[in-house]
Amino acid sequence: MFILGEPLSYFLFEMMVLGLFLCCLYFGFRRTDIVRVAFGLELLTFTIYGLCFESIAVASGFYEYAPFTFRIWNSPLVIGMGWAVIGVSVMWFTDKLNTSEWSRPFLDAALALLIDLSMDAVAIRDRYDFDGEVLGMWNWGLPLQGKWSEMEWFGVPFGNFVAWWAIIFLMSAMLRLGRYARRWFAKGYLDWLYPILSMIAALLIFLVLLLVFTDYFGDSSLILVLAASLIVAVSSVRGVTQNLSWQHDAPVFLVPVAFHIFFLALMLWRNLYADTIAILGVSIGVFIAHELILQLARLNSPKLS
């Protein structure tokens, strides 16, 4: 079935991300630990940030997207919004943790990566015929292998996951640096300025990394950044300092649940794990791991008085 010229699964994906985006806006504007306009601009600049580097990557020939209905530059709008809701929700979660500010970008990047480990392998297999060209949601041009190898993960280059980690890490680090500057200088105009400057800085640094270290974006680099994130988590996280609940922090829980369940359901609906059952096992495994982290934090958070 096609809706607005695109497959039903693509349309549903767009609607899901739009719903999550609106959810983040609604609950974000109710937060008391960050200025409302600053939060709105963080969400907006995260979206623009995602669209910018996605469009650059597509123009550079790293991969291509299927013809989604709503596009900006070379990238579907839903992809930029997806980066925003994932990035904002993981930062929201680590804001609640009893850990140092410098360590939070490491944790943000690792949590975001848990979503992509299952999402990418499924999205590239959700393939349809578009005017004689068979495409998935996004396409690397690699064979859809039924296993992982030294260079790829079920048809997705390991370098993609290193880039994912770096993209979230950089934007999180720059936004947190901007928040610190806002608190230090106590100037109201910085609420408007720091999200924009953070986006520009993160994008420029990522482009430099891409130009200089592209050849090193592989399985060894992925192991290195994941090890760094694990070491930081084990050594710095001391628990939860603020109340964490569905009532006040719904995006923290809803965003990962929605992404994991959507792609699990898509995999089962279209039998996308036919080439290897391992994809289904990995998707279920990372979903459970992600949920355990969030629920343990919620259960151990201090109660509101």
Question: How would you describe this protein?
Answer:
With 305 residues, this protein is mainly alpha-helical. The chain has one domain (10-59, 68-114, 158-271, 294-299). 66% of the residues lie in helices and 7% in strands. The protein contains 9 helices and 10 strands. The strands form 5 sheets. A two-stranded antiparallel ribbon has the order 1-2. The longest helix is centred in the middle third of the chain and has 28 residues, at 158-185.
The radius of gyration over CA amounts to 19 Å
Strand arrangement across the biggest beta sheet: 1-2
Structural class: mainly alpha
What is the CA-CA span between the terminal residues? 51 Å
β-sheet strand percentage = 5-15%
Gross morphology is globular
Order of helices and strands: EEHHEEEHHEEEEEHHHHH
Number of spatially distinct domains: 1
Helical amount:
55-70%
Biggest beta sheet summary: 2 strands, antiparallel
Give unreliable regions as ranges: none
Number of helices: 9
Assembly form of the protein: single chain
| Mean pLDDT, all residues | 86
What is the strand tally?
A: 10
